From TrEMBL, chain A:
PANTHER family: ANTI-SIGMA-K FACTOR RSKA. Its main location: membrane. GO terms for biological process: regulation of translation. It is a single-pass membrane protein. It is found in: Cell membrane; Membrane. The lineage of its organism: Bacteria, Bacillati, Candidatus Sysuimicrobiota, Candidatus Sysuimicrobiia, Candidatus Sysuimicrobiales. This is Regulator of SigK. Residues 8-37 form the Putative zinc-finger domain. It comes from the Bacteria. InterPro entries: Anti-sigma-K/W_factor, Anti_sigma_zinc_sf, RskA_C, Znf_put. Pfam families: RskA_C, zf-HC2. It comes from Candidatus Segetimicrobium genomatis.
Amino acid sequence: MIDEHPVEDLAAYTLGSLEGTERVRVEEHAVACAACAARLREYQGVVGALPLGLAPVSPPSEAWESIRAAARARRARRRRWAGPVSLPNWLRVARWPAVAAALAVLLIWNVTLQRELVRRAPGPGPEVEALSRRPGRIVILTGSGKPGASARIFVAVDGGGHLAVSGLTPLPRGRTYQLWFGRTGAPGVTGATFGVDAYRRAWVKVAVPASLDDVRTIVITEEPASGSPTPTGMHLLEALPWR
Amino acid sequence: MRLGDETALEALYARYGGLVFTLALRIVGDPELAREVLQDTFLRSWDGRETYDPRRGRVPWWLMGIARNRAVDLLRSRPHQARLREQERLPSGAHAGEPAHPGTADAVVLRRAVTDALERLSGAQREAIELAYYGGLTQAEIARHLGQPLGTIKSRTREAMERLRSLLEPRIGRTGKIGTTP
């Protein structure tokens, strides 16, 4: 369906005297309306003739020369951009060995990276992502007895927890790190025992006490490999107070 | 010219250069700026020769359109009131500059026809056409400038254009061919 003919705007359109929305409306209408398109062509003929009603003035005599010079410069510039790139001789000779060397480096790097990924333990990425979607809290433990080390405990409201540790030294056989939840007026409970990898990192699941309300301290100590019923080692990492 | 033939550009300039310069001078009112418009117009036509679409208008319309838009851009870069004052200072067709050669007989006849047609418009109609085309004003701006309703200005512009069309049709036909350079 064709909109109402923009009769009042056709003349103004050809004179370049319409504002944006009106101009667009005329253009869109003319695409579908042969009568208005024909009228626009007639008006364009009139508008094209209007300058003939002016007293003619010759342009400066040097105007053509400067136009020609500018046109030549543009053409030369286009040819430079469009033409084949001219390589220096040394680069022309070396380009294929250089490409082959680059491919070889890329291949070696790719293989090395793949081996490194296989060698490393699976990261906690998906679990962290899953935890991040669950409501809960994060507890930060700092290295009181082990400066430079730190840990995070992610506690979900449904009771699940995870511990991420970095900066602890790998322990000799027979020793383990142990996480403790200290409570007021009651013995501490252990949350996990764990070791760290060669990169001094650990990611372990934690047994979080059913009620965190009476937990006053959270610490990590070094204990015998079987774990201790109560903390015996010095506090390597702790959150105190943790609320 | 589509192939980048410089002689085609030269022929185009020879045919329409004077008309473009005259139009530019009428709009911007300054010979240096008019020369800038002239050069821009032909360089843009040179750059755009590959995208020129004959179905959308003949070469002279295309050129005049480029020139007019470039000139109005320059004009609009000045404060609005200064532009209006300048328009008032410059009566139609009166410019300092070297008068052009009269051109071919056809051009002389066509020029005479356009001048007569413009003279046969009412003063208000001619003013509406000139403020729109040479002044670079939109219909709304013209209405504000003249203190008239927008609808009145649009009707006046349409009536003026219809009158010009009927008067010039025997000369320019429906092809829009506008003859040779001044």
